[in-house]
Write a structure and sequence with these properties.
- The protein is α+β, with helices and mostly antiparallel strands and 235 residues long.
- The protein contains six helices and ten strands, in the order ββββααβββαβαββαα.
- Strand 7, helix 3 (130-147) and strand 8 form a beta-alpha-beta unit.
- Helix 3 (130-147) runs antiparallel to helix 5 (201-212) and helix 5 packs across helix 6.
- It starts with a strand and ends with a helix.
Amino acid sequence: MAGSEPHPKAGQPVGLLVDTRSADRPGVITLRGRFGYLESLKTGHAECLWQAVRDHDALWTYMYDGPFIQETAFAAWIAACATSDDPRFYVILDDKDRALGVAALMAIHETYRVIEVGNILYAPALQRTPLATEAQYLLARYVFENLGYRRYEWKCNALNASSRRAALRLGFAFEGIFRQHRIVKGRNRDTAWFSMLDSEWPTRKASFERWLAPENFTSGGQQKSGLSTIKGVAE
């Protein structure tokens, strides 16, 4: 928990003074890594993304939208996402320029310098790959180092065990459950909240970069040390 100090007049405990400058809003960008890159989502990505996610209905269970039966409906969803300012969507592409997933920066509060990563959709071909992790590293680095946010959030359906595991593996801290937080697709959603702070980012960044380093992978592309292991050593 953040520290406190006595109020200069009332003497009651108050939060520490912070830099009150506003953060920047996420924009049109390309974030390049070793295994692939992210760029702003465009309608032209729809066809490749459809081929990557079609007939995988389980990808949509905890999403606000989908699953999509027809490519036209999916393309319309991509078109709407591509023009959205909050959430601001980015597409994840591999080193062969294949679009394999999307993620969004959302719930944007520039004044408080708080932002969330969400609407994460990873095709089966992206899941459990180095690029899947690298994409989250690239977004976190952009949020903290380029945009100037002090709190980075991850929220998911409390029943989404894989998303909760991913948040912890990536270095987010579990904060609790918001009960009856949403109604999604006619069903109750309790929401699990996670966060990463700017003060924690240097350590998290070091863990990501040690994991992503070429020497952590065999010639066949298999990791030698897991991110959770590296993160534990770094902390």
